[in-house]
Write a structure and sequence with these properties.
Alpha/beta knot, Trp Operon Repressor, Chain A, elongated
């Protein structure tokens, strides 16, 4: 899969994509990434990419021409390409979106800066999808783009050491992940759960599933409405929620 990021700060993207798991995947040829800087497409000697907003107001707005020329430098794109823009107007980014993006051959991400990008870009780029990583404001879209790249790339075959690692984790199946422990078995008087040291894989799997449900109930009960639950698990959760005086509308 190829990630193409249109950004005024390519070094931010490049630095991250050369490190840790993503960097290893790039070196192994599992994924590719490239950056395109709109400054390379400016038409004045000062490499100006922004201007004051029409109608007045604070801040500056990224102009259409450099952004559109940067985007069009990537054309033609494969048919199975998703083009995104990080924006507070966008739909919330979540695991389901990461799974959808991972099915594409190429992901193009436009990063806004200053007060954003001239809105005409939204109309000029076909099938542009707006994506938001949260209800907060940042100085630019680069960090949001990296969130999308990281969450999507780790779902691709061969990126993680074990592909199962992308399945058995938070938000898979609509629940949070179970807690993890490692050596030593006792640290400052706190013991790792004995079942994890038992070698009984069936008991370990049962414990992990129960703890995943307990964590979800404790930290993100809103997720249970979309969780994949057995009838036995639903009955257990109903008992737990009734004891805690919580709503049971997750069914």
């Amino acid at each position: 899969m190829k990630f193409s990021v249109i950004t005024l700060f390519p070094e931010l993207i490049a630095q991250y994509c050369r490190t840790s798991i993503i960097g290893r995947a790039v070196n192994a040829g599992k994924i590719q990434f490239e950056t395109v800087n709109p400054r390379a497409f400016t038409q004045d000697v000062h490499r100006k990419v922004d201007d004051a907003p029409y109608g007045g107001g604070p801040g500056m707005v990224m102009m259409c021409q450099p952004v559109m020329d940067a985007y069009e430098s990537l054309l033609p794109l494969p048919a199975n390409t998703k083009v995104l823009m990080t924006s507070p107007l966008g739909q919330p980014f979540n695991q389901a979106k990461a799974q959808d993006f991972a099915r594409h051959e190429q992901l193009v991400i436009l990063c806004g800066h200053y007060e954003g990008i001239d809105f005409r870009v939204n109309e000029l780029i076909p099938s542009l999808e707006l994506v938001s990583v949260g209800d907060f404001v940042m100085t630019g879209g680069e960090l949001a783009a990296l969130c999308i790249i990281d969450a999507t790339a780790r779902l691709l075959p061969g990126v993680l050491g074990k592909d199962a690692s992308a399945v058995e984790e938070s938000f898979s199946g609509g629940v949070l992940e179970y807690p993890h422990y490692t050596r030593p078995a006792v640290y400052r008087g706190l013991e790792a759960p004995p079942v994890l040291l038992s070698g009984n894989h069936a008991a370990i799997a049962q414990w992990r599933r129960e703890m995943a449900l307990r964590h979800t109930l404790a930290y993100r009960p809103d997720m249970l409405a979309q969780a994949n639950l057995t009838e036995k698990e639903r009955a257990w959760l109903e008992t737990q929620m009734r004891a805690q005086g919580l709503s049971q509308d997750y069914k």
